[in-house]
Recover the amino acids of this structure.
């Protein structure tokens, strides 16, 4: 098929790698959009998820709310918001945050719920306050699952930010919409490939982070005796992140 | 002294775990609450440090009504050890032991020194201080649990079936450690178990429960053995069988004790041959492991 070789030619063309419309600049835009989305979504979702997991209350509401959010068609929400709020960064940001909320909330409450009830009961029995149980016991033990939620949110957000180019806005979606407008399929396919690579790289990074945040005692518990020394040095740097 | 006065606990689902329970738990003694599961003994234990609040009735510690005390502060002043150690899996042994002192604002360095001392006290090698709980055996984890319970030097130590999940040999060892610790440290110990042998071994005072938090009998092991309050208690302690039902048989001019199956359990001695009594007693315990 000719399309693929055209796409690779487009990707290899040096003129596509420089300037404000070049691949590095567009990738950077895309990453910034994604990062802002994740930060905003985390600020909203994590307290909700942790509260649900910690108190055990409102789980049903959280599940239904997340389910309802998942069912929203993102492009529809985007256009609706754009007609209300006008063009610019705001409408797509809101739409992407809505998209990111369900996996983040689910990750947070599932993570806290997965912590052994006996461990929590013991922490309370020896005199930890609710907040101390949350921050010194539940959060460190739940962190791998919480990061798992961020990971899946990140993947969706990277993929979906492409539709924001419709508005119009920057990011890697530009290539897809601009290429479509002039029927330049090489550009469309090339742009898509960049998005896919970006998503895979981000997913890989989170996969690594997810392993690093597993508390050491928990890692050691799973490892066999022979591997204990190895896994110690492997996760040596994670001690500082989880010690608090 | 801990005193329960007509304490009742009814859970929201309508189960009455404890009904009109009154008891005085003397200071510096081991009181064992024993009964089968669902007898409310754990609920009673957890009411002492306000992990459970009673529906009605009063619980006092040295004359102070616990319901007027702040739960977190109260819990930090009472040692608590539970069945599956309840250690924090992401913290090293020494940090687990030092958890409460650190919460109370003790300096890290001092807390660690104290944690190492406590490891000595409960018979743990100091080299385990930087291990994680998952790297320890069940018995070692329970020792860490006891050390953590002792970390704030509490007057009261609550133990909820602490040796229930370890194998019989380690359990026997831990029981002796507990007796030694209590003897050395003079704590008020409240101990929950479903094992009557453990209760008789450890308890200065033993409380036997029926289903639904009803007390069947309170007394020293001797009193209970000598005079079981009713059929239930007699059955529960096994007074009619095994090593608890000993008969005297004359053999070559000496009185030999045999159990209900006719196996020799020991010899009867008088007070003036103490040495012989010790030998006989150890012989009896070596024989008497079958009925559980």
């Amino acid at each position: 098929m000719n399309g693929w070789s055209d796409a690779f030619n487009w990707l290899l063309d040096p003129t596509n790698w420089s300037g404000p419309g070049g691949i590095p600049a567009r990738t950077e835009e895309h990453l910034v959009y994604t990062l802002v989305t994740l930060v905003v979504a985390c600020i909203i979702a994590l307290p909700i998820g942790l509260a649900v997991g910690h108190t055990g209350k409102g789980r049903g509401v959280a599940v239904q709310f997340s389910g309802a959010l998942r069912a929203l068609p993102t492009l529809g929400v985007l256009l609706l918001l754009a007609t209300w709020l006008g063009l610019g960064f705001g409408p797509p940001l809101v739409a992407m945050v809505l998209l990111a909320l369900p996996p983040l909330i689910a990750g947070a409450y599932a993570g806290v719920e997965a912590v052994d009830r006996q461990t929590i009961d013991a922490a309370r029995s020896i005199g930890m306050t609710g907040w101390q149980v949350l921050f010194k016991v539940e959060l460190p033990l739940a962190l791998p699952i919480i990061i798992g939620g961020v990971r899946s949110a990140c993947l969706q957000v990277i993929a979906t930010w492409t539709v924001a180019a419709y508005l119009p806005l920057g990011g890697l979606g530009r290539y897809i919409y601009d290429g479509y407008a002039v029927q330049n399929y090489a550009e469309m396919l090339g742009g898509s490939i960049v998005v896919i690579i970006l998503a895979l790289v981000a997913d890989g990074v989170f996969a690594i982070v997810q392993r690093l945040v597993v508390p050491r005692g928990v890692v050691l518990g799973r490892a066999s005796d022979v591997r204990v020394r190895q896994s110690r040095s492997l996760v040596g740097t994670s001690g500082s992140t989880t010690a608090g | 002294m801990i005193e329960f006065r007509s304490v009742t606990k009814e859970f929201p689902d309508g189960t009455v775990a404890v009904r009109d329970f009154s008891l005085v738990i003397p200071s510096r003694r081991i009181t064992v609450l024993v009964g089968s599961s669902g007898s409310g003994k754990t609920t009673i234990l957890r009411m002492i440090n306000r992990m459970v609040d009673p529906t009605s009735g009063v619980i006092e510690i040295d004359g102070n009504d616990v319901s007027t005390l702040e739960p977190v502060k109260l819990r930090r002043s009472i040692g608590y050890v539970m069945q599956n150690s309840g250690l924090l899996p992401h913290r090293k042994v020494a940090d687990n032991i030092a958890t409460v002192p650190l919460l109370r604002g003790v300096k890290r360095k001092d807390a660690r020194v104290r944690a190492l001392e406590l490891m000595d006290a409960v018979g743990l090698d100091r080299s385990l201080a930087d291990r994680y709980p998952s790297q320890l055996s069940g018995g070692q984890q329970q020792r860490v649990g006891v050390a953590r319970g002792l970390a704030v030097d509490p007057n009261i130590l609550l133990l909820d079936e602490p040796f229930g999940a370890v194998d019989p040999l380690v359990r026997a060892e831990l029981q002796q450690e507990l007796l030694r610790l209590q003897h050395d440290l003079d704590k008020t110990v409240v101990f929950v178990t479903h094992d009557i042998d453990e209760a008789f071994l450890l308890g200065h005072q033993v409380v036997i429960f029926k289903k639904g938090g009803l007390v069947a009998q309170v007394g020293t092991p001797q009193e209970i053995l000598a005079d079981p309050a009713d059929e239930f208690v007699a059955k529960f302690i096994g007074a009619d069988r095994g090593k608890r039902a000993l008969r005297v048989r004359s053999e070559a001019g000496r009185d030999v004790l045999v159990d209900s199956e006719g196996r020799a359990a020991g010899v009867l001695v008088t007070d003036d041959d103490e040495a012989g009594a010790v030998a006989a007693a150890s012989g009896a315990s070596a024989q008497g492991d079958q009925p559980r």
